[in-house]
Write a structure and sequence with these properties.
This is 7-cyano-7-deazaguanine synthase. It comes from Variovorax paradoxus. By secondary structure, this protein is of the alpha/beta class. The chain folds into 3 domains: about 120 residues, no CATH class; about 140 residues, HUPs (Rossmann fold, 3-Layer(aba) Sandwich), CATH 3.40.50.620; about 110 residues, no CATH class. The chain contains 15 helices and 10 strands. A 5-stranded parallel beta sheet has the order 3-2-1-4-5. Strands 8-7-6-9-10 form a 5-stranded parallel beta sheet, with helices on both faces. Strand 6, helix 5 and strand 7 form a beta-alpha-beta unit. The model has no long low-confidence stretch (mean pLDDT about 95).
């Protein structure tokens, strides 16, 4: 079991244990052996004019602590090389409501990251920031804006429907300029919140690269924005739109061996339901909306309510799972890249992506690591030969029968789109 302690700098003990990784939250401490997370966020929340409640602020604190722990604890050191047991102690401003939900939060994190979590909430966390100049945004919802193709389509559709979202972005290398461009293009530049979790490990090291918990911070940013806006506008709840296609959300393993690092649960229906339940229990007035849960990426592109602007902006979006590895270029052969490329084919929109490092999928066999092209081809053939239920067997037991049929449909159609792509490259 690995121990993580996250608290304000004045809560970090002078006598620190060798078996514990310490994080100073929201501020630098100047100590060479204490890591930091969330630095600058207090000032940025004040600058944005937000007035969050203790519940949404403490949820952000928890999310930052979870991601800090996820980043600090390397999976390769665990018994099976993947599953970790993480003991996380985090200081909150009002820990009691979270303490009553400890089991539920641990279960949600277990599903999200694949690890065993042991949580302890203590007093001493920073209070919610108080802005000297609170802002009442001219908005009616919140929407995640990552810089990806799905979030672009989500923003285009909301704007076409005359919705006025507060755009919330999690800064990622290579995406920040695109996020700003998109928000301004939709007339939402003044309604754009763009924040970073700023995790710095000490002594300096890369940390765990799988980061399955990173999405919870993105959702926490959205919850903070929704909560503050609800308080400012006296709304009972604010919709939080999560633009993600159903194939990627469900993320059914392509082969029996593709679990762990190859199976993320970022927007999976189970995690979304658990997150919504936690928000409701904590009194956070945010309602998750997944408008594309029953659509493939190709269907999202084909049905976009603003096709002209989509054609002009789609090529600038980022989809690659290894974008930073390839110098801020799309590799072209990872699963997200292939889903992207198949969506362009399905929608008959010209793919104006600047470059794919591996444009020819037939010749794009990796020297080492996972062979995504072969895995997708295997999945496509299995569905064609045996039917989608043979491929998704056991994956949708959490859902009622009517929802299972919807999930099976989006998976089947998504793999059909990928099959068209692979055949165009003579892989099949």
């Amino acid at each position: 079991m690995t121990k993580i302690f996250c608290a304000p700098k004045d809560q970090i003990p002078e006598a620190r244990h060798a078996d514990t990784t310490y994080f100073s939250m929201y501020a630098h401490d100047g100590l060479p052996d204490v890591s930091t997370v969330g630095t600058s966020l207090i000032d940025e929340v004040k600058k944005a004019g937000l007035v969050p409640s203790a519940a949404s602020w403490d949820f952000l604190t928890l999310a930052l602590a979870v991601n800090a722990a996820d980043h600090a604890v390397e999976r390769s050191l665990s018994a099976d090389g993947w599953t970790r047991t993480i003991e996380l102690e985090v200081a909150l401003y009002e820990p009691a409501p979270f303490g009553r939900l400890t089991i539920e939060i641990e279960q949600a994190l277990r599903f999200l990251t694949g690890d065993f979590w042991r949580l302890r909430f203590v007093e001493g966390g920073y209070p919610p920031p108080i802005s000297k100049h609170p802002v009442a945004y001219d908005a009616d919802c919140v929407s995640l804006l990552s810089g990806g193709l799905d979030s672009l389509i989500g923003a285009l559709d909301l704007t076409a429907q005359r919705r006025r979202p507060i755009f919330v972005s999690h800064i990622a290398k290579g995406d920040s300029e695109t996020q700003v461009l998109y928000a301004k293009t939709f007339g939402g530049g003044e309604r754009h919140l763009q924040w970073n979790q700023n995790i710095w490990l000490k002594p300096q090291r890369e940390g765990e690269g799988s980061t399955r918990g990173r999405s919870i911070v993105f959702f926490a940013f959205a919850a903070l924005a929704a909560d503050s806006h609800a308080r400012a506008s006296e709304a009972s709840s604010v919709e939080v739109f999560v633009p993600e296609n159903g194939l990627i959300s469900l993320n059914v393993p392509l082969t029996v061996g593709r679990v762990g690092s190859l199976s993320t649960k970022t927007t999976h229906p189970v995690f979304m339901q658990r997150l919504q339940t936690l928000w409701a229990s904590l009194g956070i007035p945010a309602t998750l909306r997944l408008p594309y849960a029953a659509k493939t990426k190709g269907e999202m592109m084909a049905d976009c309510l603003d096709p002209d602007r989509l054609k002009g902006l789609a090529g600038m979006s980022t989809s690659c799972g290894r974008f930073s590895v390839y110098g801020l270029r799309h590799c072209g052969r990872c699963v997200p890249c292939m889903v992207r490329r198949s969506a362009f084919l399905r929608s008959r929109i010209s793919d104006t992506t600047a470059v794919y490092v591996y444009p020819d999928l037939k010749a794009a066999q990796p020297d080492k690591g996972a062979n995504d092209v072969a895995a997708v081809a295997t999945a496509v053939v299995k569905v064609e030969d045996e039917g989608v239920r043979a491929f998704t067997a056991g994956q949708f037991v959490f859902a009622e029968s009517s929802h299972r049929a919807v999930f099976e449909g989006v998976v089947e159609r998504g793999l059909q789109e990928l099959g068209v792509l692979l055949r165009s490259h003579h892989v099949l």
